[in-house]
Design a protein that fits this description.
44 residues; mainly alpha
Length: 44
């Protein structure tokens, strides 16, 4: 996976909000990463 394929939690929140048509906060994304619903890549 190339670095260009990775996004920050903030960018993931913006994308998810647009994709879902409702607000998805950075806290929501962090929760999903923490509990393994979204895969984490590397240390960040």
């Amino acid at each position: 996976m190339a670095t260009a394929d990775l996004v920050s939690i903030k960018d993931a929140s913006k994308w998810a909000s647009e994709h879902m048509g409702k607000l998805v906060s950075t806290s929501n994304i962090s929760y999903l990463v923490q509990y393994g619903r979204i895969r984490r890549f590397g240390e960040n």
